[in-house]
Write a structure and sequence with these properties.
Helix content: over 70%
Number of strands: 4
Largest sheet: 2 strands, antiparallel
């Protein structure tokens, strides 16, 4: 790889790290769609994994995970114990499992989107490959986060949210088919628009 190409890749990665920061600290990270707030925080990870590859996608996923921990620590909500080992509410305490929930799904966004795009781009059109890979990356995040909460903090989360623990699987399904689907569509639309625009401007790496 030429030095100029390495520089372009580093600049692009740095730019999307900056975008992740902006989305984290501003309302742009959440888009109100009817009664639902769809997050956009995973989209830079998806875009970088498709543009640059799995390694860079995983790196940005790590940064997304770290921001999740910091946000849950310093701007906590009732459920921040799921993402921050430093936050407690009553007798419920975040712990090492909180780090796993914050980090692993976000890393898997980059891995899943990057590998899937690499596979699909050889078999179908680029636009369809981007669309499917972006939607899949978004759903990976939703499914893994909700599954992690159920596995490590199921009873605590249910008690805080005010529903019976026995119905948690139904809550996961409902989340996937509401927020999850909306976020997947949003991720696909934004990803294909941004990637096409960047490639049109010569951001091929």
């Amino acid at each position: 790889m030429s030095q100029s190409k390495k520089v372009r890749r580093l600049v692009l990665l740095s730019m999307f790290i900056g975008i992740e920061v902006v989305l984290t600290v501003t309302p742009l990270g959440f888009v109100p769609i009817g009664p639902i707030n769809a997050t956009t925080l995973h989209i830079p990870v998806i875009i970088i994994s498709i543009l640059l590859g799995v390694k860079e996608g995983a790196i940005l996923g790590v940064i997304f995970g770290i921001f999740s921990i910091l946000t849950s620590t310093f701007r906590p909500t009732a459920f921040s114990f799921c993402f921050s080992p430093f936050y407690s509410i009553g007798e419920i305490h975040g712990n090492f499992s909180s780090i796993l929930i914050a980090m692993i799904p976000r890393i898997c966004i980059g891995l899943g989107s990057g590998y899937l795009y690499k596979f699909l781009n050889k078999k179908i059109s680029e636009s369809f490959a981007i669309t499917i890979s972006a939607a899949a990356g978004s759903l990976i995040n939703t499914i893994l986060v909700m599954s992690g909460i159920w596995l490590f903090f199921g009873r605590e989360y249910a008690a805080t949210a005010g529903f019976a623990y026995e119905t948690f699987l139904n809550v996961i399904k409902a989340t996937i088919f509401t927020n999850g689907i909306i976020e997947a569509i949003l991720a696909a639309l934004i990803s294909i628009a941004v990637i096409k625009a960047l490639k049109a401007k010569g951001a091929r790496v």
